[in-house]
Amino acid sequence: MNCLIVFAHPEPASFNAALKDLAGGELERQGHTVVVSDLYRMRWNSALGPADFAGERANPDYLDLSREQEHAFATNAYSAEVAAEQAKVAAADFILFHFPVWWFSMPAILKGWIDRVFSRGFAYSAGRKYESGHFKGKRAMLCITTGTASTLYEANGIDGDLHHVLWPIHNGILGYTGFTILPPFAAWMPARVSAAERQAYLDALAERLRSIDRTEPLFFHPWSDYDKSQRLKPGVLARSGVQWNPRAGQTFEQSASDFAQRQRPVRA
Fold this sequence. Notes:
This protein is an alpha/beta fold and 268 residues long. The protein has helices at 15-29, 65-74, 80-91, 108-117, 162-165, 167-175, 195-210, 252-262; strands spanning 2-7, 33-38, 94-100, 139-145, 180-181, 185-187.
């Protein structure tokens, strides 16, 4: 299996980096090929703009990014750095995203990598999204570190359920482009726990990576559950943990309660 690790932490001595190193080593021990994109070391430019397009523009007078991305993909005219990252993604069977949770999301450098690399034409196009997305057949997983305890990310925690916090990434980026998404791995406030607890996180990640073929992916409703307006059909009860379906007589509270009963606790 070809594995790509996309690492977005500025400190090479961070625990997030230790998790990345552990992941790469464990995957290689299993016989997989591992490539790492260390975005800070690469000095990745997070700004999507005209410099991404190395060839003749579709419209040199007006920058329509979607149109220019499609044109660059069709004419093989991306800048060298974008083309190199797209080649890594195209070759990967499994992508592992390592990053700290900043402001309830990913660092800007990683969001910029998504903006530039997951471009129209390459990662998505008209009629090709979610279960028909370009990356169907590939798997992805988030490996995150937090600055606070797990209790803050529970259903009644001040930061909200982790599944809800990560929904824009899981559904809006990875699900949208067709990935099969494995449950996230979280190392809670590693800077504030003991050395033994940090080692337990490393051991747990190694075990998780040894069992990826047996890990049940996150659930997302298939196209058949939606009508022409791309809303859940009246008879379909939402099961994602974030959606609910008033047309099925389902309230948010019912949906959340049912999901909580099905969900295994997200722990390291």
